[in-house]
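The material for today's practical consists of a large collection of protein records. Backbone structure tokens are a discrete shorthand for how the chain folds in space. An example says more than a description, so a record of this kind follows:
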Amino acid sequence: MNPTRDLEGRRALVMGGSRGIGRSIALAFARAGAAVAICARGAETLEATRAEIAAAGNAPTFAAPCDLSDAASIAGFVPKAAEALGGIDILVNNASGFGRADDEESWAASLSVDVMAVIRASHAALPWLERSGAGAIVNIASISALRATKRNPPYAAAKAAVIQYTSSQARTLAARGIRANAVSPGSIEFPGGTWERRRTDDPALYNGTLSQIPFGRMGRPEEVAEAVLFLASARASWITGQSLVVDGGQLLGP
């Protein structure tokens, strides 16, 4: 890829940006000229990713641990990131609690991270997004939100809530000059991720999922990042309230 400098001078905050899709989004922003701040729980991985981001671009970077299930942690991180970058123009809500089982623990994990972290980070970043004059929010949902599932009901329901909330954000925030969109990835494989583990731990599930994708492969985090980059950029200046599916045709079936 030959990344453009679409985001030169812009300041992007990626919540849950140390690995996988979040890492690829942060790197894509840096290569496009943006200053980038990231957060996650694991300090060691977080700093390694921050160093990658710094090497990928020439704008300021910032990283700090943040527990996205905790309201106080989010409220503390966002102003620090804004100070380090000189403001916030773009907010990406990427983190997930990955609630799988239909039980209290999984529902609590999905609701606290997939839903409430989106709401809390958006509220915390709002003063800077409004001052930006062209603020953009991109929420990471999932194609799991778009169909019934037996495997991960809490995750799917939480991501459906994210899509609905995104449309409400778009309607509410337009008057403040802020756009809000969502990206719904399909099955994305990366080192240390769920699908890499499934390849060896549950080959039947892995191969069954693979058979649903017309292109015959899992998606890559970089492919999701390109969609986020577009929606956050001025090229998407008249797009708001939308959910863009990035799944290689997975929802189309075999």
About this structure: The longest helix spans residues 104-132.
